[in-house]
Fold this sequence. Notes:
By secondary structure, the protein is mostly helical. Helix content is 62%, strand content 0%.
Amino acid sequence: MAHRYRLDPEPAAETMLVRHCSDARFVWNLALEQANSRRPGRGPTPGAAARMRQLAEARRHSWLGEGSSSVQQQAL
């Protein structure tokens, strides 16, 4: 059984939700690109701990650091 909910956030909350969604999608797409670009025989793709370290590094040097780290971590 599925439940559907309609959201009707205030403008400020809507802006934050859009930001969270775009950050999560960006992080997910980077991880997916990294996994897809690995060639067979060149070792495994990074595990969860390695990806968290990469995310922490990326958050230090870009606009990504302004977003929610927990949202970005959950995307991985």
